[in-house]
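A quick word before the example. In earlier lectures we treated sequence and structure as two separate objects. From today on, think of them as two lines of the same record. Here is Kinase-like protein written that way.
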Amino acid sequence: ISPSKLAPERIELETLRRSTLSRPKPIPPDQPKWIPMETILLTLLLERFCTLAKESSIIVERGAALSPE
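And the structure line, produced from the sequence above:
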């Protein structure tokens, strides 16, 4: 494919990107709002941390119950 054939496509994509940025479309109520990746990752890490904390506390409780006083 020659570069001249690719050029119009590039311009079209750039124009499309600019027009999309210049006038943001309203988000339909049935679609979730865009969430930044950092937020998603932090949520996943927090969930994992809570799970580990629960698991470790159960182990500690079991250990305390098993150890003779």
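Notice the following. Residues 17 and 50 are 40 Å apart (CA to CA). We will return to this example when we discuss secondary structure assignment.
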